[in-house]
Every structure is written in structure tokens, then in C-alpha cells.
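Annex B, item 7. Sequence and C-alpha cells for protein A, then protein B.
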Amino acid sequence: MLKAIFIKFQNFKFNVFIIILLVVSGCKQPKRNVIRIAAAANMQYAIEEISNAFTEKTGVSCELVVSSSGKLTAQIIEGAPYDIFVSANMKYPNEIYKNELALEAPKVYAYGQLVLWSMYQEMEPSLEMLTNDTIVHIAIANPKTAPYGQAAIELLKKSNVYDLVEEKLVYGESISQTNQFITSKSSEIGFTAMSVVLSAKMKDKGGWILLNKKEYTPIEQGAVIIKRENQDSTNSRKFYKFLFSKEAREILEDFGYLVAE
């Protein structure tokens, strides 16, 4: 009799344990095998290669959203469901961190380089030629939201050219739109990222020159992991670590970025 009662009690405890285990398991969010990466427009081509290499290595898929760093920051603050923010500067990732929307402080993953680019084959790009009457429109990314636009304005001012060409400037929403102005020839010339002209899609199109990086504040490009409620951050952390790996650094260098050893 006592043995039967004991067995029933043991079975009861086992059933309770199973029920608790199922409830706890049900409360956990399943690990997502895809991460959403918000990337600055200058990183459009490089981030594609990096994310493809990451997926091949880990099996984790990457969804890319490309826009200006300023716009992406506003979206993140408003609650956009991104896991990683790959910015064109450190200002915006730091803003995310100060708003307590990041898992940890951002880090610089690369330094961008500014170029002057034209689709007109007969044209040899130079800062001096921007004042010529043959140049009617100069494409530039919006300096209010795009770090490469800020760098271009700074360079023009330091070179004492800004006041002479201010009325010629045509502002793109991001580097992507600025590139459209240049490639469509709606602007005779424009400022863009070196990573764009070195991409497979744009390589050997038009002519460009690398601008003196001493004439503008270093473009420190930072990345940060976004804090997501009730989401497993394992894959986000894996990508963040991969972004600073030797393999990713080599890809960044191929696109003209300067990276720290």
C-alpha cells in the first residue's frame, strides 16, 4: 500500500516537472536563424560580401537594409527591428548607445575614404575644375544625415572652394542617391566613397581620384549590436565578432577601407 502511494507520488512529481519544463520552454523565444543588418549606404557592396561570407561560414542568413546613417538611426530609435547597425561614422552608433538601445558600446570597424568621381570619360576629376563653367552640378550626400557628405563639405571649405561652388551642389539623400546622380550624368561630377568605385558593379566606370584624407576629419565607421527585447542575441554577436575578423578586414580593404590591425 505504502509502496503504491510512493510510486503515485513520484509519478505526480515527474508530471509536474514535465509541465513546468514545457511552460518554461514555451516562454523562450526560438533562436532566429536570420539577422537584420542596417547598413550605411557607402557599405552597400562591402556588406553584401561580408554577410555572404558570414552566412557561408555559420549558416545564419542576413537581411540587409541600406540607407543613410542618420535615417537608420532615427528608425532604430523609433523601434525598427534591426539586430546590427553598421554606420558610416561613430556619432550615430554612440547616439544609439546613449539611448540605451545597444548591448555594448560601439567600436570602429574601418575608416572610409572620399573620392571625386565622374562618368564623363574626357573629364579628369580635380578640385580645381569644380569652379569651371563646364561643371553645373556637383553631387554630394546630404551632410545632415550622411557622414561622407559632411566630409565632402569639410574638404571643400578647407580647400577654399566651397564658396565658389556652393550653388552647384546637388544633395542626395544618401551616398546611394548621390551615386545615381553621378552615374546618370545628371551631375557632371560628385563626391562618393572609395568603396563604391571599387565595387564590381561600378569598377572601371568613369574616372575618379582619391582625395587627401588630411583635408577632412577621419571617417570612423562604427558598428553596434542593437538591443532587442525577448530576442536571442547569439547570432548578432557572432556577426559582430565576424565583422572584426581577419576575413572581414580583408574584404573591407578590397573595397578601399582603411582598417586597424
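Protein B:
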Amino acid sequence: MGIEAIPGEITEIVVDVPPVNALTARGWNDLAHAVRQAGQDPATRVVVLRAEGRGFNAGVDVKELEHDPGLMVAVNRGCYEAFAAVYECEVPVIAAVHGYCLGGGVGLAGNADIVVAAEDAYFALPEVDRGALGAATHLARLVPQHLMRAMVYTCRPVTAQELHAYGSVLHVTSKLRETAMEVAAQIAAKDPYVIRRAKESLNGIDPVDPKGSYRFEQGFTFELNLMGKRRGLG
């Protein structure tokens, strides 16, 4: 259990942190390290990021913060590093999402190059209900602007089927891992040098810098915490 990397031309990075795949500060940093290491390995052609258990990711481990609120800085830095690692990974990252994808999970999926989802997958930012903000940067990569705003204000979820209609989920499937691996195999069959340059070029033409944008959001979470508004993070 934990964060496991299964190396190969298609490197699988598997999150298995019971009961809900909510990550501690160390867990976020471990995930960032695994993704960066995979991308730096010349043998890796594509990364598949997936999870075991009931859902893809439940965000931050709130219990850790309840026991030590001083860890908030470490947790925020860990999330920042994990999201950045997915975005900056030298090879394409495919997020294979099942069940819930909440808070930090949206940060991971939103920064992935391709999202494949199970039929039961849904995505949401419950931050406002918890007195926090963040990952709207990444949600905006998955849904249109006005829906993103509605989701932030109301904390309402969207389904994989809705995201498929927007084109931000490539496939909705009952065979999640198999479908993700099939897409990964199509990429892995290409010239690896060309694919790495393609990833670099696509990041270079992004209209919004997700690292700077997310860091701006995080400042408001610190403000809300200082004002005594925090009721946990997701």
C-alpha cells in the first residue's frame, strides 16, 4: 500500500492509501517523486496514473491537519509539487479515474494529458464547504468557465459522462485499466523523442501557467485558515 511505481515503457503509478486515497503531506511528495522519476527515466514512454480502492483520490488527509494544523504549509507544498510533477512530466500522463475524484484528485486529473474514466467516476471541488480554496486552476482544464465557477461556489459534482461530452475525458469505460493501457500503448508505439518534444511543445503553448495560477489560489487558503474559516481540506 502507498504509492507504487511499476516501471516499463508504460509506467504505472498506483495510489493505494486506504480507506479513501486521501494523501498526507508525505504522500503528496511521494507521488510527485514517483511521477518525476518516471518521466526522467529514458525507458518510459508514457505514464498511467491510477488508484486502487473505492475512488481515485479524496484529496488531502484532513485527519493529519486536525492533529497538527502546522502541517498546512507542508501539505500545500506537497499538493503543489504533485500537480506540477504531473504537468511537467517529460512524457504524457494518462489519469485513469474511478469513483470519486475530489479536491487534489481534480488537481491531478486536470494536469494530466489525457483522462480516461470509469462509468462511476465523478469530479468535484468541496473546498468552499471546508473553508478552503484551490484546484479551480485544474478544474478549468476540465470544464467550461461558467460551470467551473458554479462548481466552486456550490461544490456540485460532474460525472465522467458530462466531461466526456466536453471532450476532457477521452473514454468512459467499464474496463478502466485496460482502456487506459490501450491508449498508453498507442502513445508508446510512437517515436519516444518526438513524443517528449510534443509534450514540451504543448506545455509551451498553454494559455495559463497552472503552477503560478494554483499558487495564487493557495494564498487564499492560507488567508481563510488565518481567519479561522478552515473546516478541513479536500
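Comment on protein B: Residues 64 and 211 are 24 Å apart (CA to CA).
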